[in-house]
Amino acid sequence: MGFHLLQRIGSMQVRSGIAVSPGVVVGPALVLGSENFRIPNKFVSRDAVDVEIVRFNTALNQVCADIEEHEILVGEQLGSQYAAIFSAHLLMAKDPRLLTEVEAMIGEEAYSPEYAVSKVLRGLAEQMQNLGDEYLAERASDVFDLEKRLLRKLLGESREEIGNLTQPVIILAHDLTPGETATLNTEFVIGFATEVGGRTSHTAILAGALEIPAVVGLGRCLAGVSGGETVILDGDHGHVVIDPDEATLKRFRASQEHNNRVRVRLQSLDTVESETQDGQRVYIYGNIEFPEEVTQCINRGADGVGLYRTEFLYLGGNKEPTEEDHYEAYCKVLNACGDLPVVIRTLDIGADKVPARIRDRFADSQNPMLGLRSIRLSLQSTPLFKVQLRAVLRAAVYGDARIMFPLVSSLLEFRQAKMILMDVMEDLEDEGIPFRRDLPVGMMVEVPSAVILAEEFAREVDFFSIGTNDLIQYTLACDRSDPSVANLYRSGDPSILRMIQTVLEAGERNGKTVTVCGQMSSDPRFIPLLLGLGLRQFSASPHSIPRLKEVVRNISIPEAERIAAHACSLDLARDVEHYLLGELGRICPDLVV
Ligand code: PEP
Ligand code: MG
Fold first, then answer.
1. Looking at ligand 1, which residue's alpha carbon is closest to its atom 3?
2. pLDDT digits (tens, 9 = 90+) for 212-248
């Protein structure tokens, strides 16, 4: 994969991926294997090396004894062919080179036994993965298994679980699911980077929500990393540096300081409205996943919540949310917003957002992004859908709630969803429960069919919100979470610009508002273009609101229209994005470094 830059300078490794949540942080690495524990010390004191070598030998002997025991047990119960797996593990554990290399690292360089074991075994696994032999690459998992066994013995009870951190770490992992990301302890996890993932994967979006600097799509690079190494994570440009030298650390610290200065300067915009230089009022709403994030929106002077991804009520916890859980969450957001609008999107469960409890239901799907997802699932699971709708209608009494259906791909779907909403109103009425009947009902435009039929939809909906994350995925046939096609997943593609234009025109002709709530709205480069196309409503990650306001306040509508006209005349995504970056640098130089 050509976009993964990997350089090794001494022990320093520089890796490039996709920047998904801004900020530069420096801290010790915590590499997540399946055990999710971290190596507490990289070094031991010189005086202690003899004791530490004995500690390593004891752990190694115990591990060999354990494997022998398993070998006998499995041989007796399942037969010798299965016991052979453990014979192979034992050979590896007893390999004199392992002993010599680990003892040398402890004895000569005072590395801790945990770090030395991990370094030696991960180095071996990395070599096996890179030999180009599929069988050997698979056998690397045996090496990781041995590493885990040894670490478990060495760390014993003092093993630090990820849910139980006591000091700041930068997490490096092959992947993190949206559920795992949602439960990261933001007090101690100061950043994370993953080998897989794309710009608009839900894990990436969550990193922005949690305001943790993050890089995804690094490609395979963690086999040789043990944890405990110093890591620089640059969430602005998508770089990860493992074991940086002094000069590199200095350069990144300067960039960290620049960011902090810009952030502090932009704080002055929190209390001002978004208005262009020629007085056009522009509305910037926040996208949220958790009720708590509403504070970040309000503090930054958002005009409301333009997208509340309610499915996160289902991810992370292991209990099915009740109507009261929904109601409580919605009331919290509505109360915090006062008179400001709150767009509550109904459940978008499926694809990469599947609660662990119902994973089996999706197990047979060959293509989950095109499968039972979102409004399709809600329409097939009416009781689940009704629980949510009842709560939204009840909570709507307390503020300006609006309801939005995701991933609508046909008029029939929209009509069916609305009919269920009407049914729920009837039920509440019969039960004498207070609710709001006249709340606006809109839809997300994130499937090409919805763009093609925008005119027809515009006659039936109260508003549109363009979900560019999925719209790009489905238009360009490009998985939003797959780093191997990240270079093809382009917001600046001419087909996407034309689709946005089509929806804006249909909205305009039918007097329906159009918002863009995909990540394209959170990217300052696209603000002049979208303004120039006629968009006046943006819904973005809360952390990006100050930068969006800065762009809006430094541009006039005629200038934005000139930029949009030129961008639309270009026929390559690459040229569009390059041009827009140049324009942003001219309008707001501080935002482009
Ligand atoms: C989108 O698809 O652009 C969107 C906002 O929805 P989500 O990212 O939750 O799929
Ligand atoms: Mg979407």
1. 467
2. 999 999 988 887 787 788 999 999 889 999 999 999 9
Q: What value does the mean pLDDT take over residues 495-520?
A: 98
pLDDT score at 431? 98
Q: Ligand 1, atom 1: nearest CA belongs to which residue?
A: 467
Domains and CATH numbers, the chain: 8-39+167-262 (3.50.30.10), 46-159 (1.10.274.10), 277-591 (3.20.20.60)
For ligand 1, whether the C-beta of 469 sits within 6 Å is yes
Q: What is the pLDDT of residue 149?
A: 84
Q: How far apart are alpha carbons 322 and 328 in whole angstroms?
A: 10
Which residues have C-beta under 5 Å from ligand 2, the single-atom ion? Answer: 446, 467, 470
202 as an active site residue: the answer is yes
C-alpha to C-alpha distance for 194 and 177, rounded to whole angstroms: 10
pTM of the model: 0.78
**pLDDT by residue (tens digit) across 419-428?**
999 999 999 9
Q: What are phi and psi of 513, to 5 degrees?
A: -75, 150
467 Cβ below 6 A of ligand 1:
yes
pLDDT of residue 1: 29
Beta bridge partners, 21, equal 214
Catalytic residue chosen out of the listed positions 331, 337, 517, 588:
517
Using CA atoms in the order 531, 536, 541, 542, what is the torsion angle rounded to 10 degrees?
Answer: 120
